[in-house]
Amino acid sequence: MNKYRSHNCNELRKKDIDLKVSLSGWVNKKRDHGNLLFIDLRDNYGITQCIIDKENTNFSLLEKIQLETVIKVTGRVVDRSDETVNREIETGEIEISIENFEVLGSCIELPMPIFSDQEYSEEIRLKYRFLDLRRKKIHENIILRSKVISFIRHEMNNLGFLEFQTPILTSSSPEGARDFLVPSRLNPGKFYALPQAPQQFKQLIMVSGFDKYFQIAPCFRDEDARADRSPGEFYQLDMEMSFVEQEDVFEIVEKLLLKTFKKFSKKRLMFDRFPRIPYSESLLKYGNDKPDLRNPLIIQDITEIFTREDVSFEIFKKLVKSGSKVRCIVTKNTKNKPRSFFDNIDKWAKEQGASGLAYFTIEKDKQLSGKGPIGKFFSHQSLEALIDLTQAKIGDSIFLACAKERELERITSLARDKIAKDLDLIDENAFAFCWVVDYPMFKKDEETQIIEFSHNPFSMPQGNPDKIDFNKPLDILAYQYDIVCNGIELSSGAIRNHVPELMYKLFSIAGYDKKQVDEKFSGMINALSYGAPPHGGIAPGIDRIVMLLADEKNIREVTMFPMNQNAQDLMMNAPSKIDERQLKELNLILKSKK
RNA sequence: GGGGGUGUAGCUCAGUUGGUUAGAGCGAUCGCCUGUCACGCGAUAGGUCGAGGGUUCGAGUCCCUUCACUCCCGCCA
User: Fold this and answer.
1) Cα dihedral sign for A16, A20, A25, A31?
2) Which residue stretches of chain A have pLDDT < 70?
3) Closest alpha carbon to A190 in A210, A169, A211, A176
4) Residue A210: predicted pLDDT
5) Nucleotide nearest A553 (Cα, C1')
6) A69 Cβ contacts chain B strand, under 7 Å
7) A152 touches strand B (CB under 7 A)
8) In chain B, which nucleotides are within 7 Å of a protein Cβ?
9) Does the nearest atom of strand B lie within 7 Å of A79's Cβ?
């Protein structure tokens, strides 16, 4: 028999009445009636009410016990009368009549209450994460995370994938985010980098002939935090397959994600198959490459309207002449919305750094007319043309913005979210997945005008390699794809380029000569020359998947021991100073910061 | 690196136009209470109003600087 307990705190039921039991757990709550004391004892599994009265010699000791003390109680399971049954907890039909108890772990005064639905500052939660994790919601989130990971692992095994570990101490790569570096004692002046993803290793695994690989892989990127992005480290379901095309990857991942989301969430799945949206279309219609398809609003380009003679909205016309574009969002049947609705959105847009969002509503008396501040600038013929172009109906409103393409995408993307929220158009009880496909291989840095890889340098360009026009690098598309769910980027993947000559060619466009490629990616480029299979893969973000399933807005709610926004672990005091001896061993000298 | 928000008791928060000794709930301590499940009742302790400077007869409140936390932009192949 176990020294500490015969049952856990969510085990005893009516059938156990009269049984002599022992339970161990935390004192969740006390209710002291002076001569009668109730103690809610809590463990990982649940809560059991324990009771003791003044007749028992232990009464006065238990009366004084601090909340969150860990105790073992022994006693008999007793029935509760009908009036005193607690339907809120699973053990609510019984209680333990305490005969004896023992303190297993005492507790000093708490910095934050455990038994409470109050919200606390992140600072205190992260500093005392071990207390925070005792609280119901986050405790359940972490359990959910464990179950999701184990389900995925099981599914991947069934699909014939093999799980491998890849090195954590590896080499720095010139592309991508900033690396976390680890100085090498045995190689003075040289550094390891923590992997931003096991990208090269998983490709090497394919070259090694293992066919299907996966890993719940830690990834390290030294980038600033966001609500959906932990600083430092996160986990990906990293996977790679040999002898596959884009379609094969889609087939596997779609099924896996749908199965996972069906199993772990009650929310509706909007699509049985993920819609596929080309990158360029996504930028136009949604203003970004992570569209929230729960939002029915679509952005449309109406620049041509502003070249018409019978449109007299001179500010926009002038901007259009100098290369700006005009895009709009049509809202259905909003003619009766109060003026404040429109003005709030315009005001909001100005706060976002835009010049504002112009708007008018299409009305028809005898003729079409635009109602609203700028409605008068449009002739009825121009409104007809606008209706043709946008499929807007009478009674709909049009929000428009005019700017250079990049800025226009930014503001219309934000406006699309904002307007949908104001009109309550987003179904919070749904998951809307999609693929964003056909990413360009290269992009031009706005400031430096230098051509660089837009996504992943190891992606295979689309089309016959012999026919690709390398003189127009910005037109080259890649077999590169993302999965987006509810506006959150969940995964990124690609069919890889396994042809060394093609790789050199593409790297040369991004400014790396053969020697640099050989140096920086020696392991991989070398391997590709020794018989590499065509291969591809993807890497869904585990933390974000769990975040969506747990219906949380912040990734720290599904991360056991997260760092704060400044990438500090307030509980472990990381990062921390190191002593001179260690620095010396590592051949490091610290430069004092002024 | 930049912008927004927040910072008052251990925790969550209130604090009016600048005006007496800065309040509440929870928690803590002490007392009362035998059926609660957010138990109830009474009392006590607990404050560098994030820090520094300024304006003022007087600052939690106004101004400047700064720090911490957070959200966002940049960044995230």
Assistant:
1) positive
2) 353-354, 592-594
3) A169
4) 97
5) B71
6) no
7) no
8) 1, 10-13, 26-30, 32-40, 68-77
9) no
> What whole-number distance in Å separates Cα of residue A284 and Cα of residue A352?
19
Q: Report ipTM for this prediction.
A: 0.91
Res A592: pLDDT: 66
Contact A218, A550 (CB under 8 A): no
| A290: three-class secondary structure by DSSP | coil
Q: CA-to-C1' distance for A575 and B70, Å?
A: 20
Query: Taking every pair of C-alpha atoms in chain A, what is the biggest distance, in angstroms?
Result: 96
Contact A327, A401 (CB under 8 A): yes
Query: In the structure, how far is the CA atom of residue A108 from the C1' atom of nucleotide B20, in angstroms?
Result: 39
* CB-to-strand B under 7 Å, chain A 488-547: 492
Environment class of A35 (CB within 10 Å of its CB; exposed 0-12, middle 13-18, buried 19+): exposed
Q: In angstroms, rounded to a whole number, what is the distance separating the alpha carbons of residues A153 and A199?
A: 19
According to DSSP, residue A296 is labeled -
User: Is there contact between A83 and strand B, defined as CB under 7 Å from any strand atom?
Assistant: yes
Predicted local distance difference test score (pLDDT) of residue A593: 54
Residues 189-248 of chain A with CB under 7 A from strand B are 196-197, 199, 221, 223-229
Residue pLDDT, tens place only, A41-66: 999 999 999 999 999 999 999 999 99
User: Cβ(A416)–Cβ(A297) under 8 Å?
Assistant: yes
Count the residues in chain A.
594
